[in-house]
Design goal:
rod-shaped; mainly alpha; 10% strand
Protein backbone atom coordinates (compact mmCIF):
# COMPACT_ATOMS: atom_id res chain seq x y z
CA UNK A 1 0.00 0.00 0.00
CA UNK A 2 2.86 2.44 0.74
CA UNK A 3 4.30 2.09 -2.74
CA UNK A 4 1.06 3.33 -4.21
CA UNK A 5 1.44 6.75 -2.62
CA UNK A 6 4.85 7.30 -4.11
CA UNK A 7 3.25 7.87 -7.53
CA UNK A 8 2.54 11.29 -8.94
CA UNK A 9 -0.71 12.30 -7.26
CA UNK A 10 -1.24 15.19 -9.67
CA UNK A 11 -1.37 12.84 -12.67
CA UNK A 12 -3.99 10.55 -11.18
CA UNK A 13 -6.06 13.49 -9.98
CA UNK A 14 -6.53 14.44 -13.62
CA UNK A 15 -8.19 11.09 -14.24
CA UNK A 16 -10.65 11.62 -11.43
CA UNK A 17 -11.26 15.23 -12.55
CA UNK A 18 -12.48 13.85 -15.85
CA UNK A 19 -14.75 11.54 -13.89
CA UNK A 20 -16.20 14.55 -12.06
CA UNK A 21 -17.16 16.07 -15.41
CA UNK A 22 -18.96 12.87 -16.37
CA UNK A 23 -20.53 12.07 -13.04
CA UNK A 24 -24.04 13.48 -13.61
CA UNK A 25 -25.30 10.64 -15.80
CA UNK A 26 -29.09 10.22 -15.84
CA UNK A 27 -31.59 8.03 -17.64
CA UNK A 28 -33.04 9.79 -20.68
CA UNK A 29 -35.16 7.12 -22.38
CA UNK A 30 -36.31 3.54 -22.03
CA UNK A 31 -33.10 2.15 -23.52
CA UNK A 32 -30.74 4.29 -21.45
CA UNK A 33 -29.11 2.35 -18.63
CA UNK A 34 -28.92 3.77 -15.11
CA UNK A 35 -25.86 4.65 -13.05
CA UNK A 36 -26.58 1.58 -10.88
CA UNK A 37 -26.08 -0.61 -13.96
CA UNK A 38 -22.79 1.15 -14.69
CA UNK A 39 -21.64 0.68 -11.09
CA UNK A 40 -22.58 -3.00 -11.23
CA UNK A 41 -20.53 -3.47 -14.40
CA UNK A 42 -17.51 -1.74 -12.88
CA UNK A 43 -17.70 -4.01 -9.84
CA UNK A 44 -17.57 -7.03 -12.15
CA UNK A 45 -14.21 -5.99 -13.58
CA UNK A 46 -11.36 -8.34 -12.55
CA UNK A 47 -9.18 -5.43 -11.37
CA UNK A 48 -11.93 -4.20 -9.04
CA UNK A 49 -12.63 -7.71 -7.74
CA UNK A 50 -8.93 -8.15 -6.95
CA UNK A 51 -8.77 -4.74 -5.26
CA UNK A 52 -11.82 -5.62 -3.16
CA UNK A 53 -10.16 -8.82 -1.94
CA UNK A 54 -7.03 -6.88 -1.01
CA UNK A 55 -9.17 -4.39 0.90
CA UNK A 56 -10.92 -7.25 2.77
CA UNK A 57 -7.51 -8.65 3.74
CA UNK A 58 -6.52 -5.26 5.18
CA UNK A 59 -9.82 -5.15 7.08
CA UNK A 60 -9.14 -8.58 8.61
CA UNK A 61 -5.66 -7.58 9.73
CA UNK A 62 -6.97 -4.32 11.17
CA UNK A 63 -9.62 -6.12 13.19
CA UNK A 64 -6.92 -8.37 14.61
CA UNK A 65 -4.86 -5.35 15.67
CA UNK A 66 -7.84 -4.03 17.63
CA UNK A 67 -7.87 -7.05 19.95
CA UNK A 68 -6.44 -6.82 23.50
CA UNK A 69 -2.66 -7.18 23.71
CA UNK A 70 -2.63 -9.45 26.76
CA UNK A 71 -5.02 -12.19 27.82
CA UNK A 72 -5.18 -13.79 31.30
CA UNK A 73 -2.91 -16.82 31.71
CA UNK A 74 -3.97 -19.77 33.85
CA UNK A 75 -1.27 -21.72 35.69
CA UNK A 76 -1.61 -25.04 37.47
CA UNK A 77 0.92 -27.10 39.43
CA UNK A 78 1.31 -30.44 41.12
CA UNK A 79 4.03 -31.94 43.30
CA UNK A 80 4.28 -34.76 45.81
CA UNK A 81 6.05 -34.53 49.15
CA UNK A 82 6.18 -37.85 50.92
CA UNK A 83 2.58 -39.04 51.32
CA UNK A 84 1.14 -35.59 50.60
CA UNK A 85 -0.03 -34.26 47.23
CA UNK A 86 0.32 -30.54 46.71
CA UNK A 87 -1.84 -28.77 44.11
CA UNK A 88 -1.68 -25.14 43.05
CA UNK A 89 -3.63 -22.92 40.69
CA UNK A 90 -3.08 -19.33 39.72
CA UNK A 91 -3.89 -16.64 37.18
CA UNK A 92 -1.55 -14.02 35.70
CA UNK A 93 -2.45 -10.86 33.84
CA UNK A 94 -0.12 -8.44 32.10
CA UNK A 95 -1.30 -4.84 32.33
CA UNK A 96 -1.14 -2.57 29.29
CA UNK A 97 0.19 0.26 31.42
CA UNK A 98 1.22 2.50 28.51
CA UNK A 99 -2.00 1.99 26.54
CA UNK A 100 -0.31 0.39 23.56
CA UNK A 101 -3.62 -1.13 22.52
CA UNK A 102 -5.14 2.30 21.88
CA UNK A 103 -2.23 3.23 19.62
CA UNK A 104 -2.57 -0.02 17.69
CA UNK A 105 -6.32 0.51 17.40
CA UNK A 106 -5.78 3.99 15.98
CA UNK A 107 -3.29 2.55 13.53
CA UNK A 108 -5.82 -0.10 12.51
CA UNK A 109 -8.51 2.53 11.94
CA UNK A 110 -6.18 4.56 9.74
CA UNK A 111 -5.38 1.38 7.79
CA UNK A 112 -9.10 0.83 7.22
CA UNK A 113 -9.49 4.39 5.96
CA UNK A 114 -6.50 4.08 3.67
CA UNK A 115 -7.70 0.78 2.19
CA UNK A 116 -11.27 1.97 1.62
CA UNK A 117 -10.20 5.26 0.02
CA UNK A 118 -7.69 3.48 -2.17
CA UNK A 119 -10.48 1.17 -3.34
CA UNK A 120 -12.80 4.14 -3.96
CA UNK A 121 -10.15 5.74 -6.15
CA UNK A 122 -9.69 2.57 -8.19
CA UNK A 123 -13.45 2.40 -8.77
CA UNK A 124 -13.51 6.04 -9.87
CA UNK A 125 -10.52 5.50 -12.14
CA UNK A 126 -12.09 2.44 -13.78
CA UNK A 127 -15.39 4.28 -14.17
CA UNK A 128 -13.61 7.18 -15.86
CA UNK A 129 -11.93 4.75 -18.24
CA UNK A 130 -15.27 3.16 -19.08
CA UNK A 131 -16.92 6.51 -19.74
CA UNK A 132 -14.00 7.63 -21.89
CA UNK A 133 -14.24 4.40 -23.87
CA UNK A 134 -17.97 5.00 -24.38
CA UNK A 135 -17.30 8.54 -25.63
CA UNK A 136 -14.66 7.23 -28.04
CA UNK A 137 -17.09 4.56 -29.26
CA UNK A 138 -19.84 7.13 -29.84
CA UNK A 139 -17.46 9.27 -31.92
CA UNK A 140 -16.36 6.22 -33.92
CA UNK A 141 -19.99 5.25 -34.47
CA UNK A 142 -20.83 8.68 -35.92
CA UNK A 143 -17.77 8.49 -38.15
CA UNK A 144 -18.87 5.06 -39.34
CA UNK A 145 -22.32 6.41 -40.28
CA UNK A 146 -20.70 9.20 -42.28
CA UNK A 147 -18.33 6.70 -43.89
CA UNK A 148 -21.26 4.51 -44.97
CA UNK A 149 -22.92 7.48 -46.66
CA UNK A 150 -19.65 8.33 -48.40
CA UNK A 151 -19.33 4.73 -49.51
CA UNK A 152 -22.72 4.88 -51.17
CA UNK A 153 -21.76 8.09 -52.95
CA UNK A 154 -18.47 6.55 -54.07
CA UNK A 155 -20.36 3.61 -55.48
CA UNK A 156 -22.48 6.00 -57.52
CA UNK A 157 -19.36 7.80 -58.77
CA UNK A 158 -17.80 4.49 -59.80
CA UNK A 159 -20.89 3.68 -61.86
CA UNK A 160 -20.74 7.10 -63.53
CA UNK A 161 -17.05 6.72 -64.37
CA UNK A 162 -17.68 3.24 -65.79
CA UNK A 163 -20.52 4.52 -67.99
CA UNK A 164 -18.43 7.45 -69.25
CA UNK A 165 -15.56 5.15 -70.03
CA UNK A 166 -17.81 2.89 -72.05
CA UNK A 167 -19.25 5.90 -73.91
CA UNK A 168 -15.75 7.10 -74.75
CA UNK A 169 -16.05 10.39 -72.84
CA UNK A 170 -13.19 9.40 -70.53
CA UNK A 171 -9.76 8.18 -71.55
CA UNK A 172 -8.21 4.98 -70.23
CA UNK A 173 -5.56 6.76 -68.14
CA UNK A 174 -8.07 9.23 -66.67
CA UNK A 175 -10.45 6.41 -65.83
CA UNK A 176 -7.75 4.37 -64.08
CA UNK A 177 -6.64 7.41 -62.05
CA UNK A 178 -10.25 8.04 -61.06
CA UNK A 179 -10.73 4.39 -60.06
CA UNK A 180 -7.53 4.54 -57.99
CA UNK A 181 -8.65 7.68 -56.17
CA UNK A 182 -12.10 6.26 -55.41
CA UNK A 183 -10.60 2.97 -54.26
CA UNK A 184 -8.35 4.81 -51.81
CA UNK A 185 -11.37 6.60 -50.41
CA UNK A 186 -13.15 3.26 -49.99
CA UNK A 187 -10.11 2.03 -48.07
CA UNK A 188 -10.53 4.95 -45.64
CA UNK A 189 -14.17 4.01 -44.96
CA UNK A 190 -13.09 0.41 -44.31
CA UNK A 191 -10.57 1.61 -41.72
CA UNK A 192 -13.34 3.57 -39.99
CA UNK A 193 -15.36 0.38 -39.65
CA UNK A 194 -12.35 -1.41 -38.18
CA UNK A 195 -11.86 1.42 -35.68
CA UNK A 196 -15.51 1.12 -34.64
CA UNK A 197 -15.06 -2.59 -33.89
CA UNK A 198 -11.92 -1.86 -31.89
CA UNK A 199 -13.69 0.74 -29.74
CA UNK A 200 -16.57 -1.68 -29.18
CA UNK A 201 -14.07 -4.26 -27.93
CA UNK A 202 -12.55 -1.72 -25.54
CA UNK A 203 -15.94 -0.88 -24.04
CA UNK A 204 -16.81 -4.57 -23.78
CA UNK A 205 -13.58 -5.18 -21.88
CA UNK A 206 -14.55 -2.61 -19.25
CA UNK A 207 -18.32 -3.25 -19.21
CA UNK A 208 -18.96 -6.97 -19.52
CA UNK A 209 -22.71 -6.87 -20.22
CA UNK A 210 -22.59 -3.84 -22.52
CA UNK A 211 -23.99 -4.07 -26.05
CA UNK A 212 -24.01 -1.40 -28.81
CA UNK A 213 -27.77 -0.89 -28.38
CA UNK A 214 -27.34 0.21 -24.74
CA UNK A 215 -27.27 3.98 -24.27
CA UNK A 216 -25.19 4.72 -21.18
CA UNK A 217 -24.34 8.39 -21.79
CA UNK A 218 -27.13 11.03 -21.80
CA UNK A 219 -28.06 12.50 -25.17
CA UNK A 220 -28.51 16.06 -23.84
CA UNK A 221 -24.90 16.37 -22.71
CA UNK A 222 -23.10 16.35 -19.38
CA UNK A 223 -23.25 18.95 -16.64
CA UNK A 224 -20.87 20.04 -13.91
CA UNK A 225 -21.27 22.22 -10.84
CA UNK A 226 -18.80 24.78 -9.52
CA UNK A 227 -18.43 22.85 -6.26
CA UNK A 228 -16.65 20.08 -8.12
CA UNK A 229 -13.67 22.40 -8.66
CA UNK A 230 -13.60 23.87 -5.16
CA UNK A 231 -10.71 23.26 -2.71
CA UNK A 232 -13.16 21.40 -0.46
CA UNK A 233 -13.79 18.90 -3.25
CA UNK A 234 -10.06 18.35 -3.64
CA UNK A 235 -9.66 17.73 0.09
CA UNK A 236 -12.30 14.99 -0.14
CA UNK A 237 -10.61 13.25 -3.04
CA UNK A 238 -9.98 9.54 -2.19
CA UNK A 239 -6.28 9.82 -3.02
CA UNK A 240 -5.85 12.81 -0.71
CA UNK A 241 -7.72 11.07 2.12
CA UNK A 242 -5.71 7.89 1.59
CA UNK A 243 -2.45 9.85 1.69
CA UNK A 244 -3.53 11.50 4.94
CA UNK A 245 -4.34 8.08 6.40
CA UNK A 246 -0.90 6.80 5.39
CA UNK A 247 0.69 9.77 7.14
CA UNK A 248 -1.29 8.97 10.30
CA UNK A 249 -0.23 5.32 10.06
CA UNK A 250 3.42 6.36 9.91
CA UNK A 251 2.97 8.56 12.99
CA UNK A 252 1.28 5.70 14.85
CA UNK A 253 4.09 3.32 13.96
CA UNK A 254 6.64 5.75 15.36
CA UNK A 255 4.62 6.21 18.55
CA UNK A 256 4.12 2.46 18.95
CA UNK A 257 7.83 1.81 18.47
CA UNK A 258 8.54 4.20 21.34
CA UNK A 259 5.97 2.51 23.60
CA UNK A 260 7.36 -0.97 22.83
CA UNK A 261 10.57 0.03 24.60
CA UNK A 262 8.62 0.36 27.87
CA UNK A 263 7.90 -2.77 29.93
CA UNK A 264 4.40 -3.68 31.10
CA UNK A 265 3.88 -5.09 34.62
CA UNK A 266 2.35 -8.51 35.28
CA UNK A 267 0.27 -9.36 38.34
CA UNK A 268 -0.81 -12.80 39.47
CA UNK A 269 -2.72 -14.69 42.16
CA UNK A 270 -1.83 -18.25 43.19
CA UNK A 271 -3.48 -20.62 45.62
CA UNK A 272 -2.52 -24.12 46.71
Amino acid sequence: MKIFFQKNIGAVLCVSMSLAILINIQSVNAQTTSTSWLSMQINKHPDIIAAKEEMNAVFSNAEGNKQPLYNPELETGYEREGDANNYSIGINQTIDLWDKRETKEQQANFSLTQASKHFDFLVQEKTAQALQALITWQAAKKQAVIAQEQEKQLGTLLDIVTDRQKAGDLGQVDAELTFLSLTQMLNVTAKVQVQLKQTEAQVKELLTDWTPDKSVLPTQGLTITNSQFSPQWLQQHPLVLAAKAQWQITKSEAQLALLETKADPTIGINAG
